[in-house]
Batch of 3 targets.
Target 1
Amino acid sequence: MSINVLIFGHLADITGKDSLQLRDFHDTDQLIDHLNNLFPSMKKARYACAVDQKIIRTNTQLREDSTVALLPPFSGG
Amino acid sequence: MKQKEPKNIFIRNAVSPAFIAESIGKHGEKTGIGAHSIFLGQVRADVIDNKTVTGIEYTAYEDMANQQMFLIREDIFEKYPITCMHVYHSLGRVGTGEICLFVFTSSPHRKPAIDACEETVERIKKELPVWGREIFADESYQWKKDN
């Protein structure tokens, strides 16, 4: 199962990437745990998570080709 | 006019004064309009730790931002009797003194245009996945936080 991860704002500085392709994650908690292990500074970062462009508040199931976006506090305008 | 689907609100770099003038001019034929309200966001030369901001570089989750702007637009049209609304946001580098956000609402009478414009600007700031990076003269930067 392939998952697209989009990384924005200062989180892209932490990870050094603006996207990742990951496999075999079944829900967002699992995915975020994995990212926290890879990039320990992410644990302290404040951000929202969107699955297929919808902001989620709780652990969410992922499907083949889901897009997970990590969104730091917005600062447009 | 209501839209049927999300429109791309993003333009590369600054919003030029000529573009804004042209946009105002295009409304001349809509003679039911009696009032326009325009908000322009301009990049400020803030001084942070003795370093002066020379510009802001914007990035966005464009698809999600365009979709969210479409929903905001639907809500605003539902709430206020406005004739039309136009929104443009910069992507990429915008220098200090240049325009990075252009919100333009029109209605037969002034109050709905003014209120719709203000509410749209507030919702853009809160709800659109857009990020600004303040760039200093030495090319160092910090992520903007003041929303």
Target 2
Amino acid sequence: MQARHEDDGITQAAPTTPVGTTKPESLLSLPAGSPASLGQVTEVAGRLARAINTVIEGKPDVVHTAITVLLAEGHLLLEDVPGVGKTMLAKTLARSIDCSVRRVQFTPDLLPSDITGVSVFNQDVRDFEFRPGAIFANVVVGDEINRASPKTQSALLESMEEGQVTVDGQTYDLPKPFIVMATQNPIEMEGTYPLPEAQRDRFMARISLGYPSSRAEVAMLDSHGQVSPLETLQPVTDAATVSAMVRAVRSVFTSDAIKQYVVDLSAATRSSSALRLGASPRATLHMLRAARAHAALEGRDHVLPDDVQSIVLPVLAHRIIPTGETQLARRSTGEVLQDLMRRVPVPASGR
Amino acid sequence: MTRGRLADSLIAGACSAVVAWPLTTLFTPSTWIRPTLAMVLAVVVVGVVGRMLTSSWVAVAGAQLVGVVLAAGWIYGRGHLWYGLPYPDTVLAFNNLLIEARETIQNYAAPAPTGRGITLAIGLAIGVVAVIVDHLAVMRRSPALAGLPLLTAFLISASNSGNSLHPMFFVASGGLWLLMLGRQGIASLRRWSTTVPMSTTGRRNTDDHDGAYGYAAVGRSLAVAGLVAAVVVPVVIPHFPTRYLIDGLGRSNEATGFSDGQVGLKSTLDLTKSLKTLSKAPVLSYTTNAAILTPLRVGVLENYQGDSWRPERDEVDYGRQSSVPLPSELGDDVPRETYRISVEDSRLEAPQIAAPTPLVTADLGRVSWGLDRNTSVAVVNRSVSSYSFTYLALNPTQASLAQSRQGPTGGFLREDLRVDPESQEIISKTVGEVVPPDASRIEAARAIQKYLRTDGGFRYSLELPETVKNEFGQDEAPDPITLFLRSKVGYCVQFATAMVMMAREAGIPARMAIGFLPGTADRGTYTVRGSDAHAWPELYFEGIGWLRFEPTPSGTQSTVAPPYSLAPTTPGTDPTSTSTATGGATASPTRPEGRNDPGATDPTRTTGSDSGFASWFGPQTRTLVLWVLLGIVIGLFGSLAVPLAARSRFRRRLRHAPDESTRVEIEWQAMTERIGDLGVIPPRGSTPRQAGRFYQREAYLEGEQTEALRRVVSGVETSRYAPPGSTVTDIRVDTQTVVKAVSGVRRRKDRLRATWWPTEGLLEWRDRRAAVARLVRRPLDRFQDWRDARRDYRA
């Protein structure tokens, strides 16, 4: 279990809420270091999903994708209009796992050092001492990430990709598992700085919650009316278990045909006339990892093309850039991707 | 009107009509033009109306064909219609007309007389051409292709004249075709959307090589190339001998010699003279209600002396009687039909008069006439221009013919049994070879006719040989009958004389009849010309009388043997046909008649009214049926080629599959292809699971079928994507279940296509073709390599 860094020196960051200080009975934990079996993965993931679904009403798909990203060691970008529960989802996922959680409220004057940490001169030992920033936690919730300037946003680049932070030439490892869940408003909204492509590419998946159905909304009024269900939510698993699940996901078999398929899909986005920017090789990698996690969540020890297809949209939609004509035609990147999937044949075997 | 495409249809119709224009050089008078135009107009009108009503080309083309048939019935088949509709009698009438057209084409050099047959033939042919052209040019919008049928029709009409054609015919046809091509080409060009702006100033953007200007450039190049080819090609290619349609009109004999005034048949026939000229002058014209036409007899010769037949003095009691006593020897049991013939414009000199035999009643106006006492030949005491007879068409049965077995009776027949002494030797020798010893008289007569007509290797020619080689190779000039029987070349007089002599030798009373062939018809009126003069033998049969036989094969004249004179056969192979008889002067003379019908012995089937019909359709139909059967067999084998290839490819691939998962993959591929052939094709990027769902939805699978499909999908997923070592189960049976289930809900058309035209089979054939191509290419490549290596070595 990683030490929790309190945020004394981080003035702008909202105070984080350490959760799960006590281990509830229902918590299911696994011995550290060994991979979980697929049965355990589905079991834990199922509990996780149920726990989150008690708070986020009527969005099982979104929750499923979020858990997929968690197991695939990716980072999650929640993009939607204000008030649909982005932050709630991030906080619920964080609280369901008994691990260190930090929440950073991104504001226009947030500085990079607020994220990564800063070396301060310690009078007592007459030396510089590293004060870790908000990034040092298992789960980092970055709220309204596009309200900070690109300068600050860029501070996340190294930590998200490599799981480490370098300050003053000194490299500090981040705890495992490590997931950044950032929320943002659509870029057309006022007072936003769009995430640079490099930054977007580091998020494994982008999901949007969308408005709830009227039934789910009524149910929400009931459950959220008096007291937030988040308050009563108990963690259902811990960081070590999540790590074991991640290792189990890594061992899911991927045939050559699937690898070829993923590569074909990426290549198709690059050569598509409807897109200005196609998927990066990192996107290819993310697709494969997400597909593995998706397969594992279904209890399968190998990846099917259907796994790939079901994660293509959340994984690729935020990375590719449509051409002006596509935008004029009011085609979303999602539609372009659906179109590509219909046309790229599923290889029978690796070439 | 836009759907009907009136303008295009009219131009197409005009094209079809104009290609028939060169026919005016072949047939005279041009009375065929108006009916032909009416046929084309019918096609155009039906086409326009049909297109306005429906867009199905089958319906329109079918309606046009029906229109052609109906129009042909109304225009050419009047009097043979059933409440205005064609029925079997119409077909019979058309058949007779077409036979007549064929005879006209064979017998006449251009310009031939335009009979009804010719009119019908041209009308039908141009009508069909019009349907094809309308279909190609208007329905299919490919006027360029329509040029082919037009060219065919044009060439048929152009190539048979034997002379070079005036350019205007070609300019007219080609010009109309180009107009059609241009009109539709411009129309389709206008439908293009183009990014090249049309020039408003009239100046062309010469830099632009795309779009319409590019096509214009190609068109100019083609025009120049065509012009150059037109000049160069005729110089380069050799000149082939001219070929004509059914050896007809184009043959240029000296067929002229019109003479006005009266004509008479020489009643002395000299067997040594070649016939140099055939007069085209009309002798008479007549109308008749007979289905089968018989020659018109003018005289009878019984006395052969030296080299020629000589007439005897007439012994006639002239009168104006209208009824004629039947020949005393004619038995009551002989089947007969009574027909009427009305003759107009007869130019025969008295005492000759052309009449069929035997006569029943006569109407010669105020002209006295009578029958010769000895020969029963009608004679008049002064020339008569128009007259009419009713006569009997005898159709003796086998039985009555066979009865006539006993020897000659009565003194008047003595002359009719006298064989020419000079040629007695060869005649008796030939009769001994041809007639079986125990033959009845009718069998003997038939054998002789068959021998002369087909089996003996005789050739019809108006040019007689002067000499013939004897067994020592020396030239000899024997008497005419010997010369004919040995050289086997002659015309009707020689053939008839030989038959008369041979029949006499065989003990059958025989005599020579002279007269005219039935002539050519034009709208029901038959015209007999000088060139129709003919001679034939008449043989006497007890209880029947004198019967006409026809030993002369069709030459410049078309001669039809009477049905009773032929060995009994089934109608389908009735050898009365002029088309199986030696079909022209240049055709092979050795073609045997009735050769292919050993088993036909049914004597009751040979009926007179059948023979004309059968003669046109009979042997051709037989050959046609054979060809069709052969085509069907080849087609069957051909149609099996693709399914068998599919099967063998599937089996071979399964056999060569290295492991179970490859087998599963092959079976899955085969299944998707088969279901694809049935018309159920999932989107290209479907995963096995999605494909399975698609099949489930499209084919409404249920129960066990769904289970089978699920097993198939999971088998494929395991074999493709599972870690190595997973158990892969065979899905063969399940794939069959699924294919069967999908096939069950598809339309029959899809099922047939999937069975007879499977994709897998096509792939197999493509592979085989590629393999052959490789086989050819490999040595070439090697040679190339060798040459390159040698060049490198030298360098």
Target 3
Amino acid sequence: MTGDRSSTPPLGVLFGIAATFFALGITVNVVVLERIESEARTFVAAVVINAATTELAYLAVRDAGGGLLAALIAGWVVASRFGLLAASLGARISVGRAHRLAIALQSFDPNVGLAVQHDAQRDVIRTFWRVTAAMHAGWWSGTIVGIVFGNVIGDAGAWGLDAVFPAAMLAIIGNLLRERAGFVAAVIGATVCVGLLGVAPAGVPIILSVSGAVVALGIRSGTHQ
Amino acid sequence: MSWIVVAALAAGVALQRVVGMFLGGRLITKYPSTARLASLIPAAVVAAVVAQLTLTDGTSLDADARQVGMAAAGVLVWRRAPFIVVIVTAAAVTAGLRAL
């Protein structure tokens, strides 16, 4: 990608990401509130855990009768992808320790996925923070709506909101999928993950999806369409 | 989910992000041959998340209207449709099928 200003996300993409996280904030926090029955803890959990999948994994294990430690480990393991994503971004930037720490704590799929598609560090960082701002704008407003109006909204699935997040993720890696190596990494990563579900402990399939990137290392650069 | 659990989950997630950034990032920088790997990790990991959220109920394969919505989203991504069109279509198709 080029390093000019136009290569950072257009407003339409940022708006779409904000809308996605608005829907995600509603969906997740309606579920969490229903389980823990405390608006204050639901809100604080959304703020400090800063990882929706971790909250859902913890609650899923507890719902299934799992112990506290098992649920905590499940919550931590599903968040391991954020460590991998932070590592991939960390290798691309040269900034001060405080800035690096701030970026680490805000590493998610969309902002890292879009940022690493740029070559120039300036564009990587600008894209990262713009997408992060859009994500938080959507997440916070969705969290508040989910907590305050959760009972009115009811089943978020009836609104198709559970399809919004995976659709957004797919759109985000769209450019990576157009490269031969990125496509191979994605297909193998997804296949490994789905194949291991129910066999490996929660979260482990996501970690092992990195094998897709390892296999794709042998693929020459280029587009396949 | 008690306050202690909230704190424990938060600490574990933050620690992984920090370790990934400071140690993982340094490792990749130290060994340039791993830089290519780092650029491919998001594709593999995000695709795995998409597959898990689309094809399963979290633990096993699951047939659901969501998959049709995601198929529509996939076509739109392939056709380079605007981001907002992709996510609105995925939600609308999924909700529409569930309403039938």
